[in-house]
Amino acid sequence: MHTPVRKTFLGLDIVGFTRPDRTDRDCLAMRGVLYDALATGLRRAGIRPAACEMLDRGDGIMSLLDDTVEPGLVLDTVVPSLVAALRHHNTMANPHARIQLRTVLHTGMTVQDARGYAGRDISHAFRLLDAPELRLALTDSRAELVLAVTETAWDGIRPDLRRRPVGRFRRTLLSTKEAAVQAWVTIVAPDPLPAGRPHPAPSDEETTS
Questions:
Q1: How far, in Å, are 8, 38, 50, 66 from residue 53 at the CA level?
Q2: Running DSSP on this structure, what letter comes out for residue 135?
Q3: For 199, which of 47, 117, 156, 171 could close a Cys bridge (C-beta 3.0–4.6 Å)?
């Protein structure tokens, strides 16, 4: 019998990974930047390698963090570290090799067998990465990253940490294969931009950094 365990899911997806102007060598280089940036962020957050499993997605990574890792720690340290690494890379890279990320932070249950992980919550995290609203958010943008924090992850983050990273969180309707769901979304850019389709009556939790 497989016992469900609670995890924090951090999903990362490189925008336009297989664009025609990107060679296989470019793709490998971008993957290297992403893995190095994530490893640096986890190390700065004091998250032990044993507390994080990285599932390779080809054009991204789904990280499964132990339940001892608070979502706020990911928001406070790991995400800003990712942004800094992308910004550094993008200032030196050729235009076709610059990286933008779709990012999802979620918490929930999953089960593991010999082949990997399954369950509603990890599937939900994967599907949110492909939400059309997140895909559109970075179109014609200089932003490094769009981040969606699910309601369950948001509830586990201290209010003072919800102001990070740089940007503005808006409660936003995201479309998935199964249903439309609410999440807290921010676009992280040199000049913060509005994100997604805001809820018509933003709550008092809507914050700016």
A1: 11, 12, 7, 9
A2: H
A3: 171
Instruction: Report which DSSP code applies to 35.
Output: H
Residues 6+ apart with CB under 8 A from 156: 70, 71, 72, 107
Instruction: Give Dmax (Cα) for the chain.
Output: 50
Task: Please state, in angstroms and rounded to a whole number, the distance separating the CA atoms of residues 148 and 137.
Answer: 11
- For residues 60 and 205, give the distance between their C-alpha atoms in angstroms, rounded to a whole number: 30
Rounded to a whole number of angstroms, the distance between the first and last alpha carbons of the chain is 46
CB atoms within 10 A of CB 32: 11
Residue 132 structure tokens: 């059309």
Residue 73's φ and ψ, nearest 5 degrees, are -70, -40
Confidence tier at 115 by pLDDT (50, 70, 90): confident
Instruction: Determine the 3-state secondary structure of 124 from DSSP.
Output: helix
pLDDT at residue 207, as a whole number: 38
Three-state SS at 148: strand
30: number of Cβ within 10 Å:
19
